[in-house]
Amino acid sequence: MPSDGGNIFLTTENLAFSMPLIAVCLIYAYFKFLPLRVSLAGVAIVFVVFQIRSQLQARKDSQLTHLDETAILDIVGEEEEKDAAKAQEAAKQASKAKNRVKNRLAQERKSGKVKSKIEYDEDVDMATFVKGGKKGN
């Protein structure tokens, strides 16, 4: 005796084994109790609906595949644009810093604070002058 108190005859195994018999009985009842024209039309409609649904699913899958390819290309293009924008921003920052150093050095030369034998040339690395003549750092 089962301890859960359930029906021993109504199980999923019994349902699985009885599905072919149930299907045959349903098909027989469908064609027996409905006129032939109605039953064939119903079968045809169900078949057409199934075909349309499968075609729509296939089209949706192909669109998703195509969308994935275009999305990947868009993402790659966006990343390249971002990289180019970052490079431009870095170049702007470097040129601004270089201009600030040049301006400060030009002001110091005019005021006469810095008297150095180094010739200030544009090719000289400006990073050495960024500290502004401060000592100890």
Which key terms come to mind for this protein?
137 residues, transmembrane helix
Question: How would you summarize this macromolecular structure in one to three sentences?
Answer:
It contains 2 helices and no strands. With 137 residues, it is mostly helical.
Provide the fold topology.
Layout (H helix, E strand, L loop, with lengths): L11 H22 L2 H76 L26
- Strand segment count: 0
Helical element count?
A: 2
Structural class: mainly alpha
- How would you spell out the order of helices and strands? HH
Unreliable spans are none
**Relative strand content:** under 5%
Biased composition (Basic and acidic residues): 105-116
Transmembrane segments: 20-50
Region (Disordered): 84-116
Keywords: Membrane, Transmembrane, Transmembrane helix
